[in-house]
Amino acid sequence: MAAQPKKAFALRLDPALYAAIERMAGAELRSANAEIEILLREALARRGVTVKPPTPARRGRPPGKDIA
Q1: Which of 4, 44, 58, 64 allows an S-S link to 49, with CB 3.0 to 4.6 Å?
Q2: Given pLDDT bands bounded at 50, 70 and 90, which one contains residue 68?
Q3: Whether the predicted model's global pTM rises above the 0.90 cut
Q4: Which DSSP letter does residue 29 get?
Q5: How far is CA 10 from CA 7, 37, 50, 58, 67, in A?
């Protein structure tokens, strides 16, 4: 089963806010996009909103049929 694609949308941010997010992301070795997603999940959790954790992408070759 393939993972659901992420929703893409435009987000306008104050340049100073984005620069702060980029610094935080760099310190955590993440992309700015991943940092924004983490910050949003933390903010929702503080408000009592539960969001299902993302399912990691499957890696490697798909299982094959036994060839006899």
Answers
A1: 44
A2: low
A3: no
A4: T
A5: 10, 14, 24, 27, 48
